Structure to design on (441 residues):
């Protein structure tokens, strides 16, 4: 029988990782005779939910099992969730969902909502009843939301792969040893089929996280073959295990396209079009903010300090420019105005930068100053006066060009589609089948 196992919310800021439980489960479920029909799925959920620990990721394992082993399989899942969840953390509320058979459309729709907006636990419970799924929730049970979403996720359309390598248990919490030269070489040799290995602006290695979790490094790419090849090229400290996941990372799956600004909602990532209404301002901390409007509303758009040179692009906007912005809508509106944290900026239509400047003195070519509204100008240098003179219109050259701009990879979200993935999107239903080498041991 076909069994889908969803898992979420097992980790805390001080350790753990739901993908690690999945990697361990692979070994145990294979030993029970399970036959995986897909790579373990790593579904990144709405990155703007306030109660996420880190990357808001949930897991689904999809496998054929002997129906006589169903109880044993569930027992192993529960054993590992209980052994590796960070129960002491107030914000860790593990969940597990088991679904037998095909994934119904209602679950696919629910999953899409969990990736793009905020949903309630009641909605999840209702769907569990409707679909006949079996769910297990610990503490406040919130993990059931992500677990159910993972079961309904990644059924069709764009996806990517990640080779995740895990540390030996005793190394967790110490500095990771990943050879930067080997990462540079891997990046060069697999360019086009892997992405976001390095940050080009700083040269920083991006494949290794910095926290106490068991992930040693992760290589992201277009196919299982590509990430397998790339993962094995990285020299590092000793690896306990590795697994290839199929994911929605780098696909923009979280961005919902809206027709107008008034449709935006707090905590929901969005893509929307508007006109710049104020010159961008650099505020305390180096963040850059500008206002955007359409016929229905005005919002603020913010490019944060870590987005580096992306802020220079934002600073070059002027009122009248037409742009499409993408990003997460902040939860706490300033007054009625929502703020969108920029993940992407598409400059659609550049307005002409025409400025009104004081005339040049016809007598000595010195600078002139106004003698009052409608009263003409006086030369600061020679004192020449002319009551008829008016301001001149001059057109400044625009340094910005139309096109799509993204923050550098180090400041991109897991779900953000990097520039090099444009044109590589996968369409249609997911091909069944799985390569031979997708996990170790
Ligand atoms: P990761 O496993 O990558 O570290 P995370 O740790 O950042 O992910 P979790 O600890 O899983 O995040 O916490 C997120 C919690 O929020 C989970 O309980 C999940 O069910 C819930 N959740 C996720 N997305 C939504 C959503 N869109 N609406 C409501 N609840 C959500």
């Amino acid at each position: 029988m076909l069994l889908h196992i969803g898992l979420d919310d097992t980790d805390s800021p001080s350790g753990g990782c739901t993908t690690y439980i999945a990697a361990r489960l692979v070994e145990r479920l294979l030993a029970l005779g399970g036959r995986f029909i897909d790579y373990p799925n790593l579904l990144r959920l709405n990155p703007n939910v306030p109660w996420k620990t880190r990357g808001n990721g949930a897991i689904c394992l999809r496998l054929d099992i002997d129906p006589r082993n169903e109880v044993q399989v569930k027992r192993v899942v529960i054993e590992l969730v209980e052994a590796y969840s960070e129960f002491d953390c107030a914000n860790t509320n593990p969940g597990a969902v088991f679904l037998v058979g095909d994934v119904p459309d209602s679950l696919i729709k629910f999953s899409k909502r969990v990736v793009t907006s905020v949903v309630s636990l009641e909605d999840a419970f209702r769907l569990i009843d409707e679909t006949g799924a079996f769910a297990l929730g610990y503490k406040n049970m919130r993990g059931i939301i992500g677990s159910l979403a993972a079961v309904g996720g990644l059924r069709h359309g764009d996806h990517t792969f990640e080779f995740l390598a895990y540390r030996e248990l005793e190394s967790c919490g110490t500095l990771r040893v990943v050879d930067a030269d080997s990462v540079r070489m891997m990046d060069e040799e697999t360019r086009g089929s892997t992405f976001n290995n390095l940050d080009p602006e700083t040269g920083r290695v991006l494949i290794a996280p910095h926290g106490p979790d068991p992930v040693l490094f992760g290589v992201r790419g277009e196919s299982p073959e590509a990430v397998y090849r790339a993962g094995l090229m990285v020299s590092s400290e000793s690896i306990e295990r590795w697994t290839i996941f199929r994911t929605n990372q780098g696909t923009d799956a979280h961005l919902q396209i809206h027709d107008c600004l008034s449709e935006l909602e707090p905590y929901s990532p969005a893509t929307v079009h508007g006109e710049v209404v104020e010159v961008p301002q650099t505020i305390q901390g180096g963040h850059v903010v500008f206002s955007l409007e359409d016929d229905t509303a005005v919002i603020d758009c913010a490019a944060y300090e870590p987005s580096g040179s992306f802020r220079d692009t934002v600073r070059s906007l002027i009122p009248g420019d037409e742009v499409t912005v993408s990003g997460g809508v902040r939860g706490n509106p300033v007054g009625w105005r929502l703020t969108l944290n920029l993940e992407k900026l598409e400059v659609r239509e550049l307005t002409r930068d025409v400025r009104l400047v004081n005339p040049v003195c016809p007598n000595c070519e010195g600078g002139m100053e106004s003698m009052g509204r409608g009263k003409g100008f006086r030369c600061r240098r020679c004192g020449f006066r002319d009551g008829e003179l008016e301001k001149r219109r001059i057109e400044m050259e625009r340094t910005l060009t139309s096109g799509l701009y993204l923050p550098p990879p180090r400041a991109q979200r897991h779900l953000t589609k990097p520039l090099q993935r444009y044109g590589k999107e996968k369409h249609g239903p997911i091909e069944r089948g799985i390569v031979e080498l997708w996990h170790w041991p």
Remarks:
- The chain has three domains: 2-251+422-440, 258-346, 353-396.
- The chain is about 20% helix and 30% strand.
